[in-house]
Fold DUF1766-domain-containing protein.
Amino acid sequence: MLDSFGRQQCAGIKRDGTRCTRFVTASTSDRQTQSRSTTPSPSPAKKRITKAAPGSASTSLAPGSGLALGRPGPGQSPSSENEDDLGIAPDYCFQHVAEINKTTGFILPNGKHISFSMYIPSTLSARAQARLRTALSTPPTPTDLKEQGYCYVYELRDRARSGREGRSNGSGATACFKVGRSINVFKRLDEWRSRCQSADPILRSFLPAQQGQMLLAGASTASVPGVRLSRRWERLCHLELEDVGERVNEECKDCKSKHREMFMVELQKGGYEAVLQIVRRWMHFVQIVADAY
Ligand SMILES: [Zn+2]
Ligand SMILES: [Zn+2]
């Protein structure tokens, strides 16, 4: 759960078996702060986290704390698009991030061993790696195991940003993508178009699909059945994408909802190809897990 400042209580469990009392705020800018050090810092960090003012800009904490403050935003309703039926992904404080990242893998019910390093890129922040480890290890829900779904990638060209010259950090040309799951890709696009007029989504791809899948709504249909565990698949994609790129978190001017499935990804970091590679890798993962049940 998020508090009124958009902060989330660490989902970690302390050695005495009780829930960790630290609060963490998601921020795309904590990537650098986190990767600098994963060394837990003493208690001052906790005080400063809980004093975060609503709407404050991302501010680094004490050096080595491994945490940063984000932009909470009052009245945040993170699931306004209802895109994530699994609820909000658990988040963790620096200490539990370090703790979780010590585990190297897990074993599926059919005995198959999954090594985290096979799927989770080491280039991601420690926090993203911990959240992905948790999402990978969580047992599937019955609905998710039963339903067959697709993950789609739309590009929103009107939201792309051109690069600014002379600045080295985070100012490269950036494309905007919407990545989500659906049991009917073309119907989903239609729904979105009728609800929000502000963007012109172009379907770049969906998976699974055959080579040469046509992507024109009204003239195309999916020729391959969807895959099970598509909710898990979507969550994994989102957790990685918000670390590789930046999750769009403002309220939309037109439809007043937060398009939380949208991500800005720098072309320098691969743009569309990088997004597709992420979606494909997590599809392979959920297929392996689904086969084990
Ligand atoms: Zn914690
Ligand atoms: Zn909108």
Notes: Residues 196, 198, 252, 254-255, 257, 259 surround zinc ion (ligand 2) (CB under 6 Å).
